[in-house]
Amino acid sequence: MNSKFSKKYTYLAYILLAPSVIIVGVFLIYPSLQSLYLSFYRTTPFGNRVIFTGFQNFTRLLTSDAYWNSLGRSLTFTAITVFLAISISLLLAVLTNKNIRGAKIYKTLMIWPFAFSFAFAGTIWGVLLHPNVGVMSYYIEFITGFEFNWINNGTAAFILLIIASTWRMIGYNVIFFIAALQNVSPSLLEAAEIDGANNFTKFWRITFPLISPITFFLLIMNTLQVFFLTFGIVDVLTQGGPARATDIVTYKLFRDAFLSMRTGYASAQSIILFVIVAGITIFQFRYAGEKVFYQ
Amino acid sequence: MSNFRFHNIFLHIFLIIAVFIISFPILYAFMVSTLDMNQVYSSPPKVRFGDNMIENYTDAWNQSNMGRLLFNSAFISIVTALGKIVLSISAAFAFVYFGDFKGKNIFFIIILITHMLPLPIRIVPTYQLMDKLNWLDTYYALTIPFFASATGVLLFRQFYLTIPESLLEASLIDGITPLRFMWSILVPLSKNNIVALFTIEFIWVWNQYLWPLVTTNSAKVRVVQIGLKMLIPSDAQPEWNVVMAALIMGVIPPLIVYLTLQKSLVEGFALQQDK
């Protein structure tokens, strides 16, 4: 790109960038630095004084069973959900992308969960699997004898979160996978077929490498969305329970910040979340730079 | 080719089952929203439509003040999506068409950094900032802090980099000014990307939960997501039929936006994929 507007318009570039830069600075960067600052302080119970406490918030967090419980549950939950959401969506997208009748209808009926928020998705599945009113929990018990009760049973509540979040993410992933699959050139696949490749080889040797950039993009997006947005399901349905089984990190952070008003302690949790997000981002740039975006 | 049809039948059966599993929850939510309370709590649970639909929807509408909720959610979603589009196009334009100017790379990094700072990382200080600005419980808190978009800037920047230089050259010969070029040439060309970003951001803002939960309090700015939560008491038996009626009403706007604009969504983002 060599042709540009002349230098006398440089001022205009600054004016055009200013709104974005100011908003990021004021509402994102400045508060993030404040989080770091607050994480070294403790607010007195009436909120009128802050006391410098060094790393005390962090040492208390990292020696707290409740926090490790939250962290462990969040990471397990996210890993399982993202794995399910990506693999199921890929399978569905590959099958729907074939030249079959009604492909459009199938596609539409697969992607609509994306319009639902996590809170809404959780509410629907919460009712489907509700121990008193849910048709699914009724038939699960009728067929297997196993009572699926997310109100009293922590494991059931945890599984409910996974199901509702996976369902929501499938709607998001399928649409991007189908778009990526439509960009795979049919001539490549035909050439492979002439060379005697079967469907399985064609998929793993040709299609999958070609759609790996979008797979990687979805992997990152899914991880961040599931990790942060499942808050909605927890707040609407389980409030962290039963027995802290769904007390994911974002929910614990919310409780400490806005219900117990422990702003320093909550800010330290924010900083730990930042470390996790920064790790994912660095992984993204490193891995994406070398292996995936090779087109 | 002999087993071609045979394969297809299996494929259809598999897809029908998959589509049924994915869509059944929505159908079920709709069914529950038409039952009366006895039917909701009957055993075995009813999987059919009832005749209490009008009553449930009226109840849901009145109890949750649904008219206001829908207006608020629609208002903040549209304003935020448009804000992001305007700011993203301006920034992308500045990055692509003005050569190297001082601070360009730093500004680029500053905008990209938004990806690394999701709300929970800065929620306490951002809340305190809203308090200081007197923005708590107002539309300001729900819109302005979200106007910047790394996704949007990347999307438009990527697209502008693919536009042939000859376009600008020809326009420069005609003596075009930068703003004129942006408004009359780039914006019309960016139609697909604009619609794609609008769709994604409208749904994103409509479905935001944590931020409205902590910054809003009164019915005048309450959004659909929080309105639904308020229909589900944690200490009593919820009226699930009314809850589902509210849920169906609350999902119709993003569903319409999504299903009507999804083609552009794919095209807008697929263009970026090509590069």
Can you walk through the features of this model?
- The complex is a heterodimer of chains A (295) and B (275).
- Chain A has 295 residues and is an all-alpha fold.
- Chain A has a domain at 69-119 and 163-292: MetI-like fold (Orthogonal Bundle), CATH 1.10.3720.10.
- Chain A is 73% helix and 2% strand.
- Chain A is built from 13 helices and 2 strands.
- A two-stranded antiparallel ribbon of chain A has the order 1-2.
- In chain A, helix 3 packs parallel to helix 7, helix 5 (118-128) crosses helix 11 and helix 8 packs antiparallel against helix 9 (199-210).
- The longest helix of chain A has 32 residues, at 65-96.
- The model of chain A is unreliable at 290-295 (pLDDT under 50).
- Chain B is mainly α and 275 residues long.
- Chain B is built from 14 helices and no strands.
- In chain B, helix 4 crosses helix 8 (150-162).
- The two termini of chain B are 37 Å apart.
- At the A-B interface, helix 1, helix 3, helix 4, helix 5 and helix 6 of A face helix 1, helix 4, helix 5, helix 6 and helix 9 of B.
- What characteristic shape of chain A results from the CA principal axes? flat
Structural domains of chain B: how many: 1
Look up the CATH topology of chain B: MetI-like fold
Total number of helices of chain B: 14
Strand content of chain B: under 5%
What percentage of residues of chain B falls in helices of 4 or more residues? over 70%
Q: What is the level 1 CATH name of chain B?
A: Mainly Alpha
Examine the secondary-structure arrangement and name the CATH architecture of the domain at 69-119 and 163-292 in chain A.
Orthogonal Bundle
First-last Cα distance of chain B? 37 Å
Helix content of chain A: over 70%
Mean pLDDT of chain A: 89
- Class inferred from helices and paired strands of chain B: mainly alpha
The parts of chain A where pLDDT drops under 50 for at least 5 residues are: 290-295
Overall average pLDDT of chain B: 90
Task: Provide the CATH architecture of chain B.
Answer: Orthogonal Bundle
Number of strands of chain B: 0
- Tally of alpha and pi helices of chain A: 13
